[in-house]
Design brief:
By secondary structure, the protein is mainly α. Helix content is about 90%, strand content about 0%. The chain is rod-shaped and about 65 Å long. It starts with a helix and ends in a 5-residue tail after the last helix.
Length: about 50
């Protein structure tokens, strides 16, 4: 059935998009955290 194949491909596409969004937000938060640590080190807040 062609509709089942279309539905499967759409569901797979949506799953891939959700995975990419989760990975992207995780990397973005990690990048922001790194920049924030650098900023605090520049200002002299050395707590590590």
């Amino acid at each position: 059935m062609i509709w089942k194949r279309i539905k499967d491909s759409v569901m797979r596409f949506l799953r891939d998009m959700q995975y990419r969004v989760e990975v992207g937000t995780f990397r973005f938060k990690a990048w922001i955290g790194d920049r924030f640590d650098d900023f605090r080190a520049i200002l002299g807040f050395r707590d590590y």
